[in-house]
Design brief:
This protein is mostly helical. The protein has 2 domains: about 1-105; about 130-195. It is about 70% helix and about 0% strand. The chain contains 10 helices and no strands. It has helices at about 1-15, 15-20, 30-45, 45-55, 70-95, 100-115, 130-140, 145-160, 165-180, 180-195. α1 packs antiparallel against α5.
Length: about 200
Amino acid sequence: MEEKFYNYFKLKLGAISDLMKYQSSINNPAFEKWWGSITATCERMGPRYKQRADRINFFPSVLTSGDDSEWINQTYKSGLNQAEAFIETLMEELQTWGLDDSNNKKFTEKNKTNVEQSPYNLYVTVNQQQAQQIIQTINLDKYDNETKEKVELLFSELSKLNKNKSKISNIVKWLANKSIDALIAILIAKANLQQ
């Protein structure tokens, strides 16, 4: 695999001299294709490689109201020089040590764990009567229609025997972002019912 990436970057390195002929990266489809392909490849190699590619700038971060064409051209050429050094370094790393995919493996394992196991466990169970009591206690009339729907959907899902944890989680996240007071009222009402 390292040889495949090495050869790919060698080809991309050869294209820099042609890209230097352009005045800037603005409306330059050859540059867009070239750099887009490099960043996509770096992303496939792992997050560390992509982060390094993302540090290279081809366009000035600040422009004045006057003629910035020279400044834009200088930044573009400087970015190409940085990209050239970056690609040469990548090729040397690949040739010397191979692909460092330890971060990629950790990232994949972490995501796999997150998918398999929710960051919190849902042990909340309510029956229909409790759901009605909580809904009455928190006075749903003071909330907008969307919040009312979410609360009713939450209690509907919580009263089921086979709960859809993903659905519950999404509703709780929505309430936490959009109507935290309704979520707090639900928790307080549930706690009061248990006493």
